[in-house]
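**Folding the chain**
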Amino acid sequence: QYALIKDVVSSLKRHRMHEQQFGHHPLLVLSNFGVQQIQLKLMASMFQNMFPSIKVHRVNLNSIKRCLLVSYNAETQLLDFRHYSVKVVPVGVSKGLKKLLQEKFPNMSRLEDISELL
């Protein structure tokens, strides 16, 4: 079973598709591949070799725009393949500063100074 991208985009209220998402490789997450069967090890190895490994201590979190989740269901012996868009947002900062960090320009007509925004 699968869905076309045009069907997925048409079902979303606000879709986020831009070319920058595909500039870097996705973060690969493998789930339920811990079973010691040779065919599962081969599948896990195949998915791992499709994308370059990510050095956790050196990666820039802002460069990760996608996450690829491959989950194995042992009962049905099926793979679930999910592709997510990832958006990094600042947490624990004021609303005005958050808008500045996301490169959105807030309405400052009511303010006398930038310090009121921050």
User: Anything to note?
Assistant: Residues 5-90 form one domain. The first helix runs from residue 5 to 11.
